[in-house]
Design goal:
- By secondary structure, the protein is of the alpha/beta class.
- 41% of the residues lie in helices and 16% in strands.
- Strand 1 and strand 2 form a beta hairpin.
- Helix 4 (152-174) crosses helix 6 (191-202).
């Protein structure tokens, strides 16, 4: 057993494969970096190349890298032809596709998967940037980045709203003392306690005591509007297909493209047409500039979550999944593939991959190129700077809630005053008839 850097050469495979393997590839960092250094000459590096080098040294196999393949991974079109690296291997212009291909029956019918050990696992989904609205054109001094994720004017508006609702809550509770509210509730809803209660609403905390009268509960309910949640500008593929101002972004040659072509869903067939025709379509080519464009507003991105964080880092926290719930979603394994007719080599490579996995060599390569784990967002949902346009509802609801609370309070006081007057008149009538005697002293 020979150690090469942090990897281990096992040295238990003595069979020699005499033919030179032709390797189909394309630029797909960090799996494979392809850098053109001259006319027809390229430099290669990356996770899959390191893994492939170890396998070929163990098996005494030689290989030659072909020029990068257009078309990405490779998808089956409606005319029955394969694109990308799968097309190169199916046509036998290449022997190996040096990429991470998801297992699909249509691919398995024309390729040989090295399916004993996945080289990567991921699940794809639709992502889009959290909803944003245009802000009013105000001076730059108003918007301060020191108070992110909210602008300065939004902080002031939020504090003013909390104060107004706190005063309204305190007044409605106090003025209903002895009628709709108990002494205990009135003591607990002092001005300071009301401010704390409204602040707890904003931060998503519950209340231990709720007011009983209608006016105070109206103020309570209106405070829930202050809780801000990110929104998706669209909520389905049908909405996306109906929008002409949106761009669709994904990698070229992803296998699901063939499924969209035969789908019964008109929105999925719309995605297929976007990819084939290139109409408002952004092909991800493994460069940071294109990935940054894919994360902009009005762009629907089909990609896998681990690589989103690899490319976009913290900016990936601004993306939301298009579909809210995935009860059965799990990460799918992805494999290296060979052309048909290399069954003996496939068996040897499968056994070698198992040995490399057991020795820890595969995991060390993954950590070298992908890091030690997935970066998580600080918050569960995406956070973005809010503007006055986002708070139009708060601007309208806060004064309306205060007015509604005052109106209901007035109605409650009027009803109680009329009730007391009716009781007094009834007692006076009873006294006049001698039905009641006034107690002396």
């Amino acid at each position: 057993m020979e150690r090469v850097g942090s990897l281990v050469r096992l040295g238990n495979f003595s069979d020699v494969y005499t033919e030179e393997l032709k390797i189909a590839n394309f630029h797909d960092p960090p799996f494979l970096y392809v850098e053109e250094i001259g006319e027809g000459r390229y430099n290669y590096s990356g996770y899959l190349l390191d893994l492939w080098d170890v396998m070929c040294r163990e098996l005494n196999v030689t290989y030659r890298m072909l020029p990068p393949s257009p078309g990405g991974f490779g998808a089956l079109l409606t005319n029955g032809t394969w694109t990308g690296m799968v097309g190169e291997v199916v046509s036998q212009r290449a022997d190996v596709a040096l990429s991470w291909l998801h297992y699909r029956r249509d691919r398995a019918a024309v390729l040989e998967y090295l399916d004993m050990v996945p080289v990567f696992s991921a699940s794809y989904d639709f992502f889009l940037r959290a909803g944003e609205r245009d802000a009013p054109q105000l001076s730059g001094d108003v918007f301060s980045s020191l108070l992110r994720p909210l602008h300065t004017n939004v902080w002031l508006l939020l504090l003013l709203s909390i104060l107004v609702l706190s005063v309204g809550l305190t007044l409605t509770v106090r003025l209903n003392r002895g009628r709709g509210e108990t002494e205990s509730t009135c003591r607990q809803f002092s001005l300071g306690s009301s401010v704390l209660a409204i602040f707890m609403t904003v931060t998503g905390q519950g209340w231990s005591v709720l007011p009983a009268c209608l006016s105070a509960r109206t103020v309570t309910i209106s405070s829930w509007v202050l809780v801000s949640r990110p929104e998706a500008p669209i909520n389905s593929l049908e909405e996306f297909a109906a929008r002409d101002d949106w761009t669709f972004a994904m990698e070229s040659g992803v296998g699901i493209i063939g499924d969209w072509a035969k789908s019964a869903s008109a929105s999925e067939r719309h995605l297929y047409r976007r990819v084939v025709t290139g109409e408002r379509f952004l092909a991800l080519n493994g460069t940071p500039e294109v990935m940054a464009r894919a994360a902009r507003p009005n762009t629907l991105l089909y990609y896998n979550m681990p690589m989103l964080f690899k490319w976009l880092e913290e900016d990936a926290c601004h993306l939301l999944p298009l579909r809210k719930k995935h009860p059965h979603r799990r990460e799918e394994p992805n494999y290296l593939v060979l052309r048909r007719g290399l069954g003996a080599l496939r068996n040897r490579m499968n056994k070698l991959l198992q040995r490399l996995l057991q020795s820890g060599a595969v995991d060390r390569l993954r950590r070298r190129w992908f890091g030690h784990g997935r970066r998580l967002c600080a918050a569960v949902a995406a956070v973005r700077p809010l503007t006055l346009a986002d708070l139009a509802a708060v601007l309208a609801v806060t004064p309306l809630a205060a007015a509604a609370g005052c109106l209901l309070l007035g109605v409650e006081l009027l009803v109680r005053r009329l009730g007391r007057r009716r009781d007094q008149q009834r007692r006076q009538r009873l006294w006049g008839r001698g039905g009641l005697r006034q107690r002396p002293g």
